[in-house]
Amino acid sequence: MEIWIDRNAVLGRGGFGHVLKGKYGGREVAVKRVELRFVNEKEEEALRALDHPNVVKLLHCDSNDDFRMYVLELCDASLDQLFLEPNHPKKYDGPMPRYIHVFLQLASGLKHIHSKQIIHRDIKPQNVLISKTPASRSNEVTIKWADFGLSKSVDERGYHLWSGVRGTKNWYAPEVLKISNNTKEAEEAKKLEGTVKSDVFTLGLVFGFLFLKGEHVYGSSEREIYDNVIAKQPINLKKTDRKLLEIYQNNLLQKMLENDPSKRMTSAEVVEQLKSIEDKLAEKEEQLRDLCAGREPLDIFNFEFYLPLTRKIQNLIRFGIDVNAKNQFGLNALHLLCQHNSGRHLIEAIKVLIDFGIDKDAKTEKGWNALHLLCANSSSPHLIEAIQVLIKFGIDKDAKQINGGNALHLLCSNSSSPHLVEAIQELIKLGIDKDAKFRVICEYSPSILKTMESARHHIQLVMEGGKKYGLVPQ
Question: Which CATH class is domain 288-468?
Answer without folding.
Answer: mainly alpha
